[in-house]
Here is the input.
Amino acid sequence: MNVRTEPYRILVVDDSPFIHKAVQKALVPEGYEICGTGRNGKEAIAAYGDLQPDLLIMDITMPVMDGITAARKITTEFPEAVIMLLSAMGDLEIRDQALESGVKSFATKPFTNQELVIEVQKLLRPIS
Amino acid sequence: MSVEYLTQFSTNCIEVMNKMTGLSCEWQEVVPCLPAITEGMTVVSLLGLTGSTRGRVVMEMDIRVARELAEMMNGESLKEMDPMIFYSLTELSNIFSGKAITQLNNRPERPGLRLTPPNVFVGEKIQIFAEKATLRTAQIRWNNSFLYIHLCIDERS
Here is the structure.
């Protein structure tokens, strides 16, 4: 059995640098690596292709391009992409659109460090 | 405009602030003072409401309160006018507004509300609303600090 020893690489895309910092504070002490950040859906698409992260954590409501549109484009090109949408908006219509876009997880803001770690661990197996 | 909207935004603001900072706050509706022109150095975060109802959600506070809140949200002290103060507060307004909109949208009438990304303004004597604006205002209080949430709905929507 292959045992992973390298840290998982996570790309964080949110228009708020506050969220970049909050995600970093929650995940880096747990052994994850933040390999890049972006501030809108277009940047997410470009960075995903360049960085090929293990997980993309992305907001929905962003300028230039929203997270659902970006997720749809990324999963079309990279069907194996693991994407978590992290948003304050979570009504039934948005959740349906998110699931149709191919994302693997939908989490809501605000989050505690522990809540975010648990959500990430559901998608990425713990490193031994 | 229904007072339910103001209640939804205010209660969500209190819940989100409690989760992000540990603060216990109270709110009450207050009579708006129009035209709304800020006094002293003020931080204003503005979000647009779109969908079936159009309007604006505005969070307003003075710079001392802005720094105090942002430091609690970040768990560290921040320099005066540190950009993280403003990033933090735009995110606070985005989160409580998003939660309020979500709850309104999940009601049986499904109003289909959406939010535009927040914009932040910092300065003195910012005119937020004109004399004839139709708005409801809530004051959120904790200890000796407070902020305001203003809701302005376009009645033609």
Observations:
- Residues 54 and 76 of chain B are 37 Å apart (CA to CA).
- The interface with chain A takes residues 16, 19-20, 73-74, 83-84, 87-88, 90-91, 94-99, 101-102, 105-106, 110, 112, 114-117 of chain B (CB under 8 Å).
